[in-house]
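Quick start: read one record
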Amino acid sequence: MKLIECVPNFSEGKDNSFVNELKNIVINSENVHFLDIDPGADTNRTVLTFVGEPDFVIDTAYKLIKYASEYIDMSTHKGEHPRMGATDVCPLIPLQNVNMNDCIRYSKLLAKKVGDLLNIPVFMYENSAKNKERINLSNIRKGEYEGMEEKISNANWKPDFGPNKFNKKSGVTAIGAREFLIAYNINLNTVDKKIATDIALDIRQAGRLKRDKNGKIIRDKNGVGLKKPGKFKYCKAVGWYINEYNQAQVSINLTNYKKTSIHKVFEEVRIQARKRGFRVTGSEIVGLLPKKALFDSGVYYLNKQKKSIGVPESDIFNIAVKSLGLTDISDFNVKEKVIEHCIKSDDSNLSDYTLNDFANELSRNTYAPGGGSVAALLGLLGSSLSCMVSNLTYDNKKFKEFQSIHYKSSEKLQKYSNELLYLINEDTIAYNNIISARRLPKKTKSQTLLRNKEINKSIIYAIEVPLKVLETCLKVHEVTYKVLKHANLNCISDIGVANQSLYSASNGASYNILINLVDLNPNLEKKYKEKIDYYMKQINSFYLKINMVLNKELKIDLW
């Protein structure tokens, strides 16, 4: 499925009826999914986030822009946030099976529709911009609503779509395709907006005007003030005071969080605040953010604390939330603020089941979930146990010389555990796909050909899933043996259980590959049998080597 995200910003944040109607438009639209809405009374601005299939996103965005143009009168609008239109900006962001060029094309389709049908001047920005001057939204927005009538009368600022005539009620809208933008505010223990502004000038890419020793602005030969760049690229920042919180904030837009991370900016603002005799009290995310942005921050702070990063994802998120102070002025729910957690399939997922629910589902008179899912579960348990031993050893001062080994090992094992967790559900999906393919009609020759093709495709997938389980179990076994060689041997029984779990998981995965081979041609059958043999030989080797250590340490001879 193709998915794009749309994050329109509207110049109204005080009227609940307006905010609720925006949400209703999205909820009642076909093939789009509402994610978040964030109104701000002081900024008098609402940020809405939704995702969906591209054509349906464009239709929904148009309905939202139309509603805003009917409801908002920009001639009476006031608010802290810079703005130029009822729908100030409407970005499209590629999420799944869509690239930036696709989003550029969709942004132009939307802009043309808005310009032609609503008579709103539209500028294309970011990746959709027609020239360099229009890439940066702040260049387009300069002068704001009050200066737009004069601006668009200038030939250099002719709108890309819509009329050249200013729309007094709706103003001007910017539409474009961009990478994921994180709207991020850092809170200061002051009400002084000037302090926040001064810090913003030091950290933002655009920087501040250069001044001589007397405080006079240094200008070039054309009289244009020269600027000293700020600390971070891909960072836009202003300072403001929010009456709702009785607090000044450094308000930031990160246009490429992979190159300029939220934690680096947060730490720099802390340094800058301390220089001025103030303190950062926390921060807030406006709208949503990608999982990786929060995950990377959690890893950063765990590293600063000299703690293992081979821990559950939820623990890493928790560290990030606490370290960044994301609950300082409002609640922060990872399930509601991380975009990947908000996009959920309507289908149930076995990984979300309780242990009791999974056991009950397994025991019913249905074929799935079955042995393939259980094999993946056994692999997951083995991987998690090995990870536990690695983390316990990492935290033990007696094994300080092996910390680097366990740092890497626990990280790998956590990654493999996540993969196996995913494969528990995938095995059930693979089986259900075979059933669905077998139920396809076969009354005509073309129907029979299509049915056979789908059956063959589903069988291949039903083989590839347990093969991935087998491959992952080998990786886990390899790391487990390394952990054992440098581990706290008080945990050796746990390694023993992990070893048995991994061995059972590997054999179970092999059975689920073999049972599906009977429907394949001899060449494919041979290929998959060779792969089973390749993985099982190595798994057997690790299994026996781990058992030898167990026998020696526990003074037993069970195997």
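The first helix runs from residue 16 to 27.
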